[in-house]
Amino acid sequence: xxxxxxxxxYSKWKKIEVSDDEDDTHPNIHTPSLFRWRHQARLERMAExxxxxxxxxEERLINERRVQDIDEKLKSLSVDDKERMKLxxxxxxxxxxEEEFLKKEKELEDNxxxxxxxxxxxxxxxxxxxxxxxxxDQKAEPPKLSEEEENARM
Length: 154
What we know:
It comes from Anisakis simplex. By secondary structure, the chain is an all-alpha fold. It has a domain at about 20-125. About 55% of the residues lie in helices and about 0% in strands. Helix 1 runs antiparallel to helix 2 (about 80-115). The longest helix is centred in the middle third of the chain and has 45 residues, at about 30-75. The protein is flat, with a radius of gyration of 37 Å.
């Protein structure tokens, strides 16, 4: 390189687009619509998770009732040996189903804990107390001033 300083060649950076926008979305996407779609999808996921929990608890209740029925039948003395064997096999199957329900519940809890926070689930109201002041019919009378204070005011 010779002794003379070469001026900087800025042509390399001509094509760079610089924007002071801090918008996360593409300019061609309507931002309020995007937020509305995301919110709707979030609500749908929450509804689906709630439905899964309700379905699981419903199935578990049915299973528990069936176990109780079989227990009652087994305790009764009028059941013959074939029937007893059949009921015991069914009881074993129901116990296996109960274990599966416990696994599914654990899985749902884990998924719920791993789910990212969002505006709909970030806070829950623990208690609510609203107080409203009663409006009286009488207006508060201004305090009586002495003559000197009234004269000083005017």
